[in-house]
């Protein structure tokens, strides 16, 4: 009997293992072994595309040497589709831009030795409002395969509220796989829903940040988030910081060179740009190994054949000398360092391993180290933005806890332990703590909402009452500054399984400052407390970080939790007048009164203006009739 059970058990185990083996099978074809290089229509042409443009571009990519330099993808972005499907679900192509359809265009591109890419969105409409692929993934994948598409950029616009991105993107991935054609699948989710946690198995590249803009600050901001997750990319699943903005007329020559150098060292997909080199076959992204805010960066990464790439960047608005020790910081000894833009060569064998480089503002130097060997793996001086990122202690001067050290723990909103759901996303930000924040929280784009979930909050003095200081960024555009009348942001807070609690935060209508607001919360666990920020109805502020400090005296800590558990009420509570940092917001009554005051003032001014206008009109007419009588 025992043996029978034993055999059944083994059989079950075997089946479970088989299941796992299946799940772990590499689903992604192995053709994307180096990051894709090519050209895309969007940054320059937007929706103004047609079949002439594609033909001309294909010709130019060959005649001007782009193809020879490795840029082999020619990708159509948004607006090749119409707004409609046929009755059998086949997508209808924009008849004005592509009167002969997509197939002849793809054939022409292929005839030049190039590969052909296309675009859609995991929603009901694309970002430009054309027909997208949600619920028609199979139809569209079939069309792409019939036309000979080699690359699909799949965007994240206009989806149904609450359907997670991993699910929507999986449908298209499976549909593409079913066609049997090798189609590069570019997951374009701007880093939402912690893209790097699920997308490496989903697509051949995954976006980590909001769209790039044609300015230097945008590049600095993207690196702030991308550098944290760049190591998760590699052959078959490239981390994508977005396309290149080179040659679009705003970046200086130095900035363009820096932009290009870091992008290629990070093994980013190089879509659009000038030519430097083919991508290295090893496919290991360079890591940011030194970063001084608004000052300098050093990036380093291994290349094939025992060589290495180093990029040194000057962020300062004036020239500076930057020094790197090749052996201690990069773990590379002997050989040569060749600067790839100037072709200057430094012999590292008998000289010191220290390179000093004078760099103009926003310029970089990019070295390839060859003919030497690795002494140790790369070491980085940068702490990843996991939570808790900063721990400070302060000595209390209140009577309650005289002489006690009270820990204050700061949790960055962009911390990688946090889950950023829906449309919410991390964004680089020069004035923010940690260099980034989380934007698009609350009801952003009805019905799509964004949520910030802190999952790993520690009760530093054990379960009990804590003061939570919320540091928020006031607004990032005038049209989205909270409530127009009340000048307040609304935010829903949930702590562990407690009742939701709404707060209203003052808006100063100035995106260049951060503001504070403090509220009390009860943490009833030692580790992994959860704090959720969202709002199904209103737009919330962007959050930079939260800071937690024990609120009750040490000896009463336990008592508070017991009381809270007995009452089972909300585990968020208002602090006293002077603790909250926003006195008018301490009680609902004062808040309502204050908001009412502003509204009243507004209405009074409006009424006064209208009355005055009416009066003037009346006088004017009166005078006219008076003159007429005369
Ligand atoms: C969309 O296609 C259907 C037929 O499939 C047609 O009846 C309808 O008029 C089309 N709508 C537009 C806006 O072209
Ligand atoms: C769907 O209809 C279009 C024309 O309306 C036709 O070209 C296409 O072959 C049809 N597809 C299927 C799968 O029936
Ligand atoms: C860089 O170093 C060189 C040589 O030591 C020196 O002449 C130059 O003034 C330095 N430049 C800056 C900006 O410090
Ligand atoms: C390094 O120095 C040694 C002797 O000091 C010399 O024999 C050798 O050629 C030098 N190597 C290079 C690459 O300059
Ligand atoms: C690899 O590096 C060695 C020197 O370390 C060099 O002689 C050789 O040409 C390199 N091979 C390739 C394929 O680049
Ligand atoms: C670098 O790290 C890898 C794995 O982490 C290890 O196998 C390798 O020996 C290390 N190389 C050096 C030179 O320390
Ligand atoms: C963070 O919290 C989640 C959920 O409670 C848990 O699964 C995860 O292991 C925690 N991570 C760390 C680093 O503590």
Automatic annotation (TrEMBL):
Residues 1-23 form the signal peptide. Residues 294-369 form the Alpha galactosidase C-terminal domain. GO terms for biological process: carbohydrate metabolic process. It is an enzyme of class 3 (hydrolase). The keyword Transmembrane applies. SUPFAM superfamilies: (Trans)glycosidases, Glycosyl hydrolase domain. It catalyses: Hydrolysis of terminal, non-reducing alpha-D-galactose residues in alpha-D-galactosides, including galactose oligosaccharides, galactomannans and galactolipids. The chain crosses the membrane at residues 596-618. Its EC number is 3.2.1.22. The keyword Transit peptide does not apply. One of its GO terms (molecular function) is alpha-galactosidase activity. InterPro entries: Aldolase_TIM, GH, Glyco_hydro_27, Glyco_hydro_b, Melibiase_C. Keywords: Disulfide bond, Glycosidase, Hydrolase, Membrane, Signal, Transmembrane, Transmembrane helix. Belongs to the glycosyl hydrolase 27 family. This is Alpha-galactosidase.
